[in-house]
Design brief:
Length: 250
């Protein structure tokens, strides 16, 4: 039987590569394969996660406190190393990347719940920091601050602007290098609902104007609803995947 199959394969012409579901299917931006990570003490923080995220897609990651959301995001962002499994960006496996810091700074923007802006630097200098003193750093930082609606606050220090403005400055810093992927860990965790709505609109703009891929960890159903898909994590594994509303209601 096997011999017959092998022979019939040899006889037939070389098959054309299969086209994925449709010609218009967007490229895979991030592929996560069998990703696992345990912490000392036997905590299986991330357990065998498989996930493909399309270019320009917004994915929300939800789950109870301690379910492994931040660990997963940090593994996806190469801030942490998995025990097993892999993460690829546009077909490039992170295990093959020699200079991870450089790759990260070009490809991935990070937004954390705590903004980590340096208190003594102006918003402009904070946003220019990832550009490592490049000649046009301040112009690009000013443009990124303009993009998030902070053109009028560039010379303020973080302590002299509102919490929402600080978070927007953190987003400006994350996008100043024009990354294709933005990873955000509870970006709206410390802001009021008006600011949350403004941040969500900003995320939507980043997707529609720059085709950016967004992965957002959140506890807020209102934030998750804006995603294309909501990944529910339980005890380090994917519990279920739900469709979100994407940008449809904006
Ligand atoms: N550095 C660490 N060392 C040991 N255990 C850790 C470490 N970081 C996280 N953990 C544990 O791993 C599990 C997952 O943690 P993680 O921070 O990923 O959860 P989370 O879903 O982001 O929670 P939260 O919603 O509270 O931010 C938890 O049990 C946590 O206590
Ligand atoms: Mg967390």
């Amino acid at each position: 039987m096997i011999a017959t199959l092998v022979l019939s394969c040899l006889d037939s012409p070389v098959p054309e590569p299969q086209t994925p579901t449709s010609l218009a299917a967007p490229a895979v931006a991030i592929a996560v394969r069998s990703l696992s990570k345990a912490y000392p003490g036997g905590i299986n923080a991330v357990r065998d996660i498989n996930l493909e995220i399309a270019q320009g897609e917004m994915v929300a990651i939800m789950g109870k406190s301690g379910s492994g959301k931040s660990t997963l995001l940090n593994l996806i962002g190469s801030l942490d190393k998995p025990d097993s499994g892999s993460v690829s960006y546009h077909g490039v496996d992170l295990r093959e990347v020699r200079d991870l810091a450089r790759f990260r700074s070009r490809e991935i923007g990070f937004v954390f719940q705590l903004h980590y802006l340096l208190p003594h630097l102006s918003l402009l200098d904070n946003v220019a920091l990832p550009l490592f003193g490049q000649r046009d750093a301040r112009e690009r930082a000013a443009a990124a601050l303009g993009e998030v609606g902070l053109a009028h606050r560039v010379h303020h220090v973080p302590g002299k602007v509102s919490g929402g403005e600080r978070q927007r400055a953190a987003i400006a810093r994350a996008i100043v290098n024009n990354p294709r992927v933005l990873l955000a860990d509870e970006p709206t965790g410390n802001v009021d609902s008006v600011t949350e709505a403004a941040l969500l609109e900003l995320f939507q703009n980043l997707r529609s104007r720059h085709g950016m891929t967004l992965v957002v960890v959140t506890h807020e159903p209102s934030v998750a609803a804006r995603a294309d898909r909501i990944i529910h994590i339980k005890d380090g594994a994917i519990d279920r995947i739900e469709a979100g509303k994407g940008g449809r209601e904006l």
